[in-house]
Amino acid sequence: MASSPKLRKGTALGLGLALTLASCASDERPFLLPPDAVQAATPTTAVSTTGPTPPTTADPGEPLALITPTGVVVPILEVGEGGYLVQTPCQEQATLTFGTPLREVDVVLDPGHGGEIETGAVGPNGLTEKDLNLRLSKLTALRISERGFTVALTRTNDYRVPLITRAQIADTLKAEALISIHHNAPVLADSDTPGSEIFYQTASLQSARLGGLIQEEVLEALSAFDDVDWVSAADAGVLGVLKPDGTESYGMIRRPETTAVLAELGYLANPSEAELFASDEYVEVAAEALANAVERFLSTNESGVAPNDQNRTFTPTGGTGGVAGCTDPALE
Ligand SMILES: [Zn+2]
Q1: How far is the CA of 248 from the centre of ligand 1 (A)?
Q2: How remote is the CA of residue 111 from the centroid of ligand 1, in Å?
Q3: Digit-coded pLDDT (tens) for 154-192
Q4: What is the CB neighbour count within 10 angstroms for residue 203?
Q5: Is the peptide bond prior to 35 cis by the omega test (within 30 degrees of 0)?
Q6: Which domain holds residue 182?
Q7: Total of domains in the chain
């Protein structure tokens, strides 16, 4: 956990929130960007007092995705004369002339759900999962970037992103880890401990390791909250979830080639947990726990909690992974 963070050339922060941290100048001029956008996109280079100084003149590499002027993250398909040919959230193609380029990142965080229709779970206090997931993802991204790792989000605001595009963003950015962040429903049996469930790719040892570290950090951090009436499933933990035919049930696990997990930190449908999740303190504590897990995943060989021996069987119905009925958000 205490290992020095890995340093990577061309360190760039993949989210608007963290761009305000930019503190050093760069002579890099990304293609077709206006000068003010270049300034805003100037990377915060990770500086370690003990590690080697990253080269400042290194080629930052090809831009792989863009944060559009409206904050939407889109994979770049091609850089041409007219601008960037990008893949929209709804899997259409568009040409953009402005945007903040994203290069290879260590981690992609995926705030589950989003948009008018897809709120995800809703707490009895009115807190929607889409908003909670986004808030937690943004702060987690900030905490990860503060430790010297590069990070991007699949969604930066309240709009719908089909699962296929979320997976594509992580794959395009060549992330070493993709973490889809969720909060669960319905209300299950009372429990002395948080009912956190981390779904992993059953064919991937790295996914099991990522899930194990997240489960260990999140359980420890959330257990420190007093006076919460937790609920849990009997088989909560690091879990494989498979269809009867043996394939992965969840799109965010099945679709990405990137090492991925889907983390259900707790139960938003449970009144006591919903109250906790609405607090600033919860978001701070959970973000710190997730950043700890990411740091351990990227800089150690530790594996945390072992996955359950028994996989869960689940057949998804009417998922929101596809692009049917998808309306793209404004891109510029
Ligand atoms: Zn969810």
Answers
A1: 17
A2: 9
A3: 999 999 999 999 999 999 999 999 999 999 999 889 999
A4: 9
A5: no
A6: 102-313
A7: 1
